What does this fold into?
Amino acid sequence: MAISKSKTIITVAKKELTDHMRDKRTTLLVLLLSVAMGPLVLMGIGYFISSIEQKFEKKEVFVQGEANSPELLNFMQRQDMTIKTPKPEFRALIKEGKHDPVLVIPENFSQKLVEGDAKVELVYDDTRQDAGNAAISVLRGVMRGFNQEVASQRLTARGVSTAILRPVEVENTNLGTAAQRAAALLFIIPWITLIGCVTGCTSMAVDLGAGERERGSLEPLLMTPIAREALVLGKALAVSLYAFGIAILTMIGFALTLKFGNVPGIGGVISLSFQQYVVFFAMLATFAPAMALLQILLSTYGRTFKEGQTYAAYAIQVIALLPAVAMLGQFKDAAWQLFVPVLAQLMVITRILRGETVEVMHYLIPAAINITIFVACVVLIGRLLKQEKIIFGRA
Amino acid sequence: MITVRNLHKTFKVADKTVTAVDDVSFVAPSSAITGLLGPNGAGKTTSIRMIGSLVEIGGGSVTVDGIDVKQNPDGAREKCGILTDARGLYTRLTARENIRYYAELRGIETAKSEATIARFVDWLDMSDIMDRRTEGFSQGERMKVAIVRSLVHEPSTVILDEPTNGLDVMTTRALRGLIQRLKAEGRTVMFSSHIMQEVAALCDTIIIIAKGRITAEGTTDALLEMSGKDNLEDAFVKLAGIEDEQHTLKAA
It folds into this structure.
């Protein structure tokens, strides 16, 4: 009795989902992490952004040797700055990233200032990308302002116009919106979501590939008169639905946090419309299944679950590292990224988060690439399942 | 009925071509049990896999109930119920779910498959394990589930590759009973084994295969007569050509 391909696909998918869902510990962990990912990431970013803002607002500066310059001290106080004394071992602590930058005022500063030979030292570590960067900007601003004030006073005393200090007047017009400034950090959202989608379905994908080989269930399965492609498509459907589930849960986590979370630093800055969520999901809808299938394909080469997992891990590594490469490469929104999975999703989702327009091609090109990967994986897995070394090669 | 004509298969191992099955021909009739006896690496499993169209037929032909395996592999698969050494079960599914999955994949109506399952469950006395997840099943329990899974579509031809390997006495007895009942129902039954008493007790015809070739074929009595030995084990050793090898080894 021949079974139709569509019925085979549904039967296989139903079985695979039931089978995987019964692994309660793994499923619960994956699903909970998917929901929790949004709040956790947004809270982390929010805390980071708000700590920077607070540093700017509070105007807290660490000054060593404040008694050495009443003039500088007076200037800072007029700027409503709070002057704090650094810890004695601040140099070592700055190196470890545990202390904000410090302005060191040497002895005899006041005298040297009169003589025109004054120096201050700004101690910081520019290899650390943390909130300390904000404090450096504040300190540099203070010194710029102080220099300007002293120079102006001296020129005025000599009867020279202070305009000589500013041959070019610079007017600051920042075109970046609040959302864009926050989005500079919010690239982490798509990054984490993309990795979550891929790693979330790894256990299922590997079980469908290498798992079948290891437990010796592939050979009896292939002795039934079902079409190989239908078997692969059934597995693909199961893992895709699972990947969709992870993507939806991750997005729900982000949506709820953005809507009700009142996260400091982000609240009110980023808010996505329903349409934007649809585009966000559309980006994941083709990406997640393609990456899941890629993992099944790679894992099928493994004779054991462990071996399959190792192969899949390499794919995950590339997926996780690509955004870092893009960041270091400063690709901005280069169009060629639309043809590279991961980079395309990262670019388009970040555009959505920045509140920028997403054109149809921004969605269509990555979707077409993902569908091509999906179809290629189905064909290749189908071919692998005809190879004797795959069917019989067991550990 | 299985008809095998001039079956041939070679494999490439490293740079060498190894002949696994070499010009094998036999007929396994319906309502009879045909035993496939041979030392390890003789070509039994490869032959079984070619009959089940899991391995591409290198040369010759195989028909199952008149269906050419090469031309219509799916048709042959519908006729065959094959149990090889790959007997993996899905451990998070119950025994019943494992079997039902195969029934569904073969497009059998639920009512029909449930009746078939109930019959085999009764024969193999496995009702107490049917609704348990197969994780932690003993080898015998796993074997019973795997056998019912391969029979759920009521195949006319049943091929079992060393089904009693590693089983306890009670499970082996249950299996022997099943094999005899399958024969009584008019099916073609073929099985391979290393246990001589089992083969002697069950098989109507024994085919001895060694180094990919059939070296002898006949009833137990015929093989004893052919070899001039008084027990099947000695007859097998002689007819499979293992005796000559042992002599050569001793002489060396």
Notes: The first strand of chain B starts at residue 2 and ends at 13.
